[in-house]
Amino acid sequence: MASEKDEIRDKAFRHLIASYRKPVWLREPGHFRILVKGEGVRVTDIEGKSYIDGSAGWQYGAVGHGRAEIGDAIRNQAAELAIASPEFVNIPCVKLAEKLAEITPGDLTKVSFCNSGSEAVETAMKIAKQYHVLNSEPRRYKVISRRGSYSGVTWGAMSIQGVYRNALSYFEPMVPMAIRVAAPYCYHCDYGLSYPDCGLQCAREIEHVIDNEGPEVVSAVIGEPVSHSGNIAVPPPEYWPMVRSICDKYGVLLINDEVITGFGRTGKWFGCEHWDYLPDIIDFAKGVTSGYIPLGGAITTAKIAEKVESGPIMGLVNTPTWGGNAVSSAGALANIAIIEREKLVENSANMGKYLLEGLKDRLFRHPIVGDIRGIGLMVGVELVADKKTKAFFKPEVKIMDRIFDKLESVGLLCRDFESTLLLTPPLCIIKSEIDEMIVMLDKVVSGLSKDLGYAR
Ligand code: PLP
Fold first, then answer.
1. 315 CA → ligand 1 middle, Å
2. CATH number for the domain including 158?
3. N or C: lower Cβ tally within 10 Å for the chain?
4. What are phi and psi for residue 222, nearest 5 degrees?
5. Ligand 1 atom nearest to CA at 227
6. Which amino acid residue places its CA nearest to atom 10 of ligand 1?
7. What is the rounded CA–CA span in Å between residue 383 and residue 366?
8. 127 and 182, same domain (yes or no)
9. Taking 70 as the threshold, does the pLDDT of residue 29 lie above it?
10. What domain range is 279 assigned to?
11. CA of residue 134 to ligand 1 center, whole Å
12. Same structural domain for residues 202 and 335?
């Protein structure tokens, strides 16, 4: 008789469309964990094996697993009022908008809600576009984004993103608005330069692009304050203030995509707060509800919002049916209350430092570890075939597959992008759990270095 696990695996194979993975993954043992329970930073699979969730789901589980109080808030609101169309205003949605205005930096005070990070990116780009049209600059439509950035699954978000370019060719023609520039990824600089002698070529390139395209057609620059898919390359201190002043010079709006960096992930409420500048729009999702219920959005200034609302048509043309949904908003308020009460933003800063230092201490000595960097609880370990030349591993080595198999067998789940292991555990993590993560990583990287024939 087939076990419950085998049945689920078989049903998944027959009824789910494999996305961003090969279909055999759903069937083959070893590739497909069926998670059944979560508590704090740990999850348990159907066989009873426990793991530290080193990526907080897909970086959304800010408050960690098993928070019944978020479930209670969602349940209570569903019982009180769930169905209230966006023509009406519901109380949790207004309270959430007020809360977001309070915790986001500067004069960002007006929000448009949606249901995911992809939609949040779309919302931000649409605010910028509609603003320019109503500000008598209707030709501004181009968006400057960065290579290495992931932006989502909707057509507009895919059109601007700087990863998976080959796979995206299925969907051509893309929305004709994107211009991609280099990211501030100093360890593998696109220009082969070194900071600080580079003079921030990656930021200056944005000015060249605006100048070359013609400022009258450029709508916005969009970027994550620190890019997760961009190998957690923390930009040099001058980068964002420089980008801000370039945008100001040419009347271009600056959007920060804080889908991952928002809600404490970097050790501040929002990633942009690490530097001395303010974006015009922040788009957010993930950590706003810690993934207990879908919600995303974009927040902007009253000045920009009022211009957007001033058109003859209908305010911002952007209301998905569940944008500002009362139940999602109640879940978000309960989640933010936990972040505040348990001081998880501060914990992210402190535990992030502890994780970064611990990893540097234990992992740098391994021949395949090229760089370790991060900010708050967003830490990357870049693996290289050659420390001196920073050469990447050849694809046939399947370095990430090998490391994940080993990490999972010792009880740690995490993610990768290209050459970097990405560690983003829940913000409620404590020192002893970080110690466990470091011991597991040390053991696995050490074993893998030996398997690959590196001598220490
Ligand atoms: N923006 C960034 C920076 C992301 O990392 C993601 C998803 O990981 C998105 C947007 C898209 O979010 P979602 O998957 O919720 O649509």
1. 25
2. 3.40.640.10
3. N
4. -125, 140
5. 3
6. 151
7. 10
8. yes
9. no
10. 68-341
11. 28
12. yes
DSSP β-bridge partners for residue 299: 111, 282
Q: Is residue 7 part of a domain?
A: no
Q: Looking at residues 384-399, what average pLDDT do you find?
A: 94
Does the pLDDT at position 304 exceed 90? Answer: yes
Kindly state if the Cβ of 158 falls inside 6 Å of ligand 1.
no
The closest residue, in CA terms, to atom 13 on ligand 1 is 117
Mutate to test the pocket of ligand 1, among 259, 266, 282, 292 (most ligand atoms within 8 A of CB): 259
For residue range 314-364, list pLDDT tens digits in order. Answer: 899 998 999 999 999 999 999 999 999 999 999 999 999 999 999 999 999
Any domain includes 2: no
pTM, entire model: 0.97
Q: Is 118 in the pocket of ligand 1 (CB under 6 A)?
A: yes
Of 131 and 8, the one with more pLDDT: 131
In a domain, 229, yes or no: yes
Same domain flag for 371 and 435: yes
CA of 451 to the centre of ligand 1 (A): 35
State the distance from the centre of ligand 1 to the C-alpha of 151, rounded, in angstroms: 5
Task: Note whether 43 and 140 are same-domain residues.
Answer: no
- CB 259 less than 6 A from any atom of ligand 1: yes
- Domain count for the chain, please give it: 2
Q: How far is the CA of 440 from the centre of ligand 1 (A)?
A: 28
Tell whether ligand 1 has an atom less than 6 A from the beta carbon of residue 257: yes
